[in-house]
Write a sequence for this structure.
């Protein structure tokens, strides 16, 4: 089966490039309410499942013991720009556990956001691990391990107790079987497991609704999702799609991107979880796809619907500010 | 018809993302010698056809009148990083025509190359039009117009005599009909015309061999292609695929990238022109595709073949330097 073309990029009167993909939206009971393309094949969720990976931080009691508020919880679920506010909160989280940047095992990189990168180039000799887009997630990992009295050394490896716990958590949420066969190494060195999109979407529907979860996990999930929706800047940063999507409907839309064209989202008020992937891994297409998918669930709110469709279908301009073409989703989302 | 998957990106033991595309290689007489996917559909060549667009610079006599050597000619065909050497040659070209940066109509942008961008951020308040990746092409345009006694104002517009001349040149080379119906606006504001890949490949085969061209155009084409092969740094810059490909076989491979996953290339010694596009517009895939296509024509040179296949199929590493997966072409290129 070939996945359908879901996003077109136009220039003049012609389509210049095409993106295929797969999308699914399910309710808390796992019923499919919208689907495009092949959604039963394993997909690496990459950073789109960070809220699932942050559950040990909550369930060990570390987040409460260290007095974390919504910003820390949002940052634990984030892929951030490495802006000063992100770096400061990550450092604060590590300090709460009596640790610092040296405990991070995520590696370092310059910001992926051009504006932030220019600021960093002007103020830093080189970035450190706190600037890594995953530093909040890793700080959360370290807090969970340290609060439990464990040794965080090697916390990114497949056999570390933390990664075993995350594996179990994600299996319970997604219904997938996670192991060496479907495991890859993520950009920040932790294991990532290929899971069918349907399972990922169901996992986020469960987190958003509590359906089928034990009370402790339901509470922890709700707090993480609500923290992200309350602090969208700390989930991504200036100009980023996750931040903009969550700002469009404060407290009502959760959205989280992952590398290689993945997006997960949830609409808690409607009990919906969403997972999608652009087949070719392109972010611009995944962003259009998630906005168009979310829009389908807000047809009864014309302003919000229009704003979401405006993120799905948008004009492109060149270096002189001239209109050159559009990114637009296909009729598959109608 | 659906274009075939030509590039896969793996993670662990699984394929994470897939790129479809179309490729064609033709000889100077226009005979197809290799082809994948749909090659009769119009494709915007974008910057991949800059060597064609530079022909007026040669054919007006401007390049010789201004004493341009291989670096200026290569830069006229380039999409450069905006490194200091690129900026200096573009400024020198404009000065030869009695002009400066103010005549450029390409707009300004920060370098697309991270290392160069960091250097720029540390040394510039903001980039100017000389830093635009197209500044060499635009300087060549201005030189052609000024040497001819024309007014360069508006040289980027569809109706300017220069763009009319380029339109005619490209029609002759590609066999396509260029007009408003297949015209879009490029990133640097000049018109770009969708042309079937077969016509583009044939145009580069003609430029590389002189087949079917009038002697003056054959000479001009040969000088531009040879200048690019002699000065690969000035066609792109540090770390760039065009530069690396041409450095692999000095004087024997011409290669030029374009936005949205296009690549054109030529092997003058074998009389071959190549044009390809990744359907989804992704550069990493277009680079793998052009390297694999070129490799097919050098099976008799094991070292060069291996180097080209090494650019087609290559490992990816994460922020910690750990191996995470491969970019690899499919068996379609075998």
């Amino acid at each position: 089966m070939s996945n359908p073309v879901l996003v077109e990029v136009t220039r003049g009167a012609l389509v210049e490039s095409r993106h295929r993909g797969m999308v699914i939206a399910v309710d808390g009971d796992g019923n499919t309410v919208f689907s495009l393309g092949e959604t039963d094949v394993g997909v690496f969720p990459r950073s789109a499942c960070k809220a699932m990976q942050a559950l040990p931080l909550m369930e060990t009691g570390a987040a409460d013991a260290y007095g974390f508020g919504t910003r820390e919880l949002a940052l634990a679920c984030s892929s951030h720009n490495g802006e000063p506010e992100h770096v400061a909160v990550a450092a604060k989280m590590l300090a709460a556990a009596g640790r610092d940047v040296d405990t991070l095992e995520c590696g370092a990189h310059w910001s992926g956001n051009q504006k932030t990168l220019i600021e960093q180039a002007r103020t830093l000799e080189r970035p450190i691990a706190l600037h890594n887009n995953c530093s909040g997630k890793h700080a959360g990992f370290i807090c969970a391990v340290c609060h439990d009295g464990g040794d965080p050394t090697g916390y990114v490896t497949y056999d570390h107790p933390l990664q075993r716990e995350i594996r179990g958590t994600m299996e319970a949420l997604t219904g997938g079987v996670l192991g060496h066969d479907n495991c890859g190494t993520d950009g920040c060195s932790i294991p990532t497991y290929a899971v069918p999109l349907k399972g990922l979407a169901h996992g986020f529907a469960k987190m958003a609704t509590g359906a089928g979860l034990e009370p402790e996990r339901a509470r922890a999930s709700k707090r993480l999702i609500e923290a992200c929706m309350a602090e969208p800047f700390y989930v991504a940063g200036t100009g980023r799609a996750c931040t903009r999507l969550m700002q469009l409907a404060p407290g009502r839309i959760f959205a989280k991107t992952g590398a290689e064209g993945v997006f997960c989202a949830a609409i808690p008020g409607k009990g919906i979880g969403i997972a999608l992937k652009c087949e070719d891994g392109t972010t611009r297409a995944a962003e259009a796809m998630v906005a168009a998918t979310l829009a389908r669930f807000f047809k009864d709110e014309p302003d919000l619907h229009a704003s979401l469709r405006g993120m799905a279908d948008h004009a492109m301009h060149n270096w002189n500010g001239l209109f050159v073409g559009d990114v637009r989703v296909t009729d598959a989302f109608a």
Q: What stands out?
A: Chain A has a mean pLDDT of 97. Chain A touches chain B through 51 residues (CB under 8 Å). DSSP finds 14 helices and twelve strands in chain A.
